[in-house]
Please model this.
Amino acid sequence: MQVQTQGLIIKEQTVGESDRLVTVLTKDEGVVRAFARRAKNLKDSKNAATGLLCYSRLKLSKGKGAYNINEAFPLEVFFDLRKDVTALALAQYFCQLAAELVPEGVESGEYLRLVLNALHFLCRGTRPQPVLKAIVELRMLSEAGYMPSLAYCAQCGAYESERMYFKINRGTLYCKECYLDNGDPCASLSPAALTAMRHIVLADFERIFSFSVSPGAQQELSAAAEAYTVHILQKRPKTLDFYYSLL
Model:
């Protein structure tokens, strides 16, 4: 079976002397593993198109346990990420999130679009990295079926209060009057941080990157999104720790 699609290389490893085994976030087939034969050969057309963080047009065929990349043409290679080691590390974290959350064999254009847009903003440096991180985390979790319940207080239905409290292990929101500290992990949110979280999970895709928050609200937003992501994954990604080691 032949498949033509577009995809972002989110992981690569060398197999033998000249082949690559890559993990690809594709538009039409979800996250797949694929062999790129002779891709390490500089003269092969697949060399540039199957490198890490390369967005390419691909022609795939289904093999036993993995796909084969028969043809590959690079569409975007994100060279500017190599100029900023923290941006590159954050991009690799986004790739790991996709590998963890996107299944194989599903239409996944929204996931791909999300990561590609985030990589473009990372290259340009026009959005704060903590905000980009929170956008990718919360929107990807929402697309994967883990959208947090942020519309109103789970107890009384209040839309907002001076402080709202997001219970990480439940994905639910409580106002200041209803919040009970029973030891559950919790993130305290200002109105600005909560508005940003609601925007990320509920806004049309074309608008999810179109907002700004103060540095204080950025910190609250980033901490809440990260804690919820780690809870859903049931582990702390190594790429996340590596990113923080560079700050």
Q: What stands out?
A: The chain has two domains: 2-77, 83-149+163-245. The domain at 2-77 is CATH 2.40.50.140 (OB fold (Dihydrolipoamide Acetyltransferase, E2P)). The longest strand covers residues 2-15.
